[in-house]
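Just curious. Invent one:
>
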Amino acid sequence: MLKQQHPVEGVRLLDPYFVSMMLFEDEEEELEKMVSLKLFANDYLMIPLNTNSDWAGQGDHWTLVVLSTSDLTMHVFDSTGKLIDNVEVLKSALEGLAKRTYNKDVSMKVLHAKNTPKQSNSYDCGIYVIGFAETLLKHLEMGKSLVEDIDWKQTAFRQYRKTIRSSIDKLMLECRKAY
């Protein structure tokens, strides 16, 4: 959805399933497939990260991590302001992938973005990840860096839920008409 609406050159949005593979897969063949994707050839990797601790996917929170490949900095955008354990797990996985890619040890920095909007309930984290991603894509599209001030006021977090619901309702009507 975001990639189609905002195709920003040099930015790759990673699929959550792929992120889980990165975190929990240790099969040599799968790791080599990941290296072959040349993720570090992109300027930025947008990574939706769940708090799940294994393949079972029992996590209860989503956050957005954006890796700047030029300086190997992970920018964490979280709607609760809490530190998420999986950020360190992701850091380790990305460092391992980078080591396989560059054939040398790599150390990444983690920066927790300040002044990100906070959700007021316990269930809108996914909506905030979508809003963060869209706003950051627009920000990057304007040639700004991730450490420059980001104008979150333009992001209609509350509207995303309604827009998504409306899209689902329309799809359901179309399906009913087709049958």
Remarks:
- Confidence is low (pLDDT under 50) at residues 1-6.
